[in-house]
Structure formats: C-alpha cells, structure tokens
Amino acid sequence: MDVTAVGDRPRASRFTDDGKQLWVSCQDEGTVVVIDPANARMIKRIRIAPPGVPADQVKPVGIRIDRQRRFAYVALGRADRVAVVDAQKLEVTDYLPVGSRVWNLEFAPDQQRLYAANGLSGDISIIDLVQRQVVKTVRVGNSPWGIAVGGVPGRPGSARRYRETNESAAELAGTVPN
Length: 178
Fold this sequence. Notes:
By secondary structure, the chain is mainly β. The chain folds into two domains: 1-97, Thrombin, subunit H, CATH 2.40.10.480; 108-178. The protein contains no helices and 14 strands. It has a four-stranded antiparallel beta sheet, with no helix packed on it. Strands 5-6-7-8 form a four-stranded antiparallel beta sheet, with no helix packed on it. It is globular, with a radius of gyration of 16 Å. It starts with 9 loop residues before the first strand and ends with a strand. The model is unreliable at 158-178 (pLDDT under 50).
C-alpha cells in the first residue's frame, strides 16, 4: 500500500471514471490535491480562493468529476460556493453561489445538472451545468449532508431527492427534474 501526503484535514476523495486520477479535498488548507494513483505522486495542488471570501471560510469537502474529465466540481463548505475546476488544466474557472454550508454534490444521471446539499440553509441547490447557475432551490429540512440520485420506477427521466443527517437517511417526497 502506498501512502501519499495530501494536506490538512482531507475530507473527501474521488477517482476519475478512468481511474487515472484521485482528487482529495483538504478542508483546513483550502485546497484540492490531484494524485496519479499509478505512482502515488501528486500531480497538482489546486488552491481554492473565491473572490471576496475570507480564506478561513473556504472549506473544500465533496467532489464530483464528470465522466469525460472535462470539469470537476468542489463543494466549498462555509464559502457557500461550488468551485468549477477545468479537469484538464487543473485550474479553477468559476465559483457558483449556492445555499449555506454546501457539503456534498451529486450529478443528475445525464450530468447536465448538479445537486448541492446545503447543510445550514436546509436546502438543495439545483445547478444547470450548461448555464452554470442555480436554477432552483428546494427546501428539504434540517442539515442535508449528502445526496443520492437515481431513476424513479415508473417515472422515466426523474430523480429522487434524498437527505442524510447524522441520525438517519430519509426519502423525501416529490421529484427533482433531471
């Protein structure tokens, strides 16, 4: 087993679909580290610094990377933003404002939308990835932490909303359009 130092308080990790990169969020230093798992070496440390947000509020957590490895999306916790990272150049290209304390992210099945779980505001932001903007905010209750997206039996093209809290995971009523 190889061990690769990444940074202070690693919070989440995600392999690219092709397995050629491992992305790790380092919450306490405001970075994302990209690693080559073939040799366990760091490819790049990406500094996350949204304009106008104090550095101590930038807390990278959840990561999602599209299937084509064009873009990665990083939930920034207290910064209330999602960072958009060019996954080829390994550079931040944009910051998308979402609800309060965004912890985790999940793609719609077609990867045209991204769902962001906003823990303190108790909602989910639905982000259109073509427009790169929040198109809807759905109130879901106390402290949503994660999201699971999948097809709903008998409703082609739909996705169920789920919330996860420290106590339990519970299905929510209704559907969110893909």
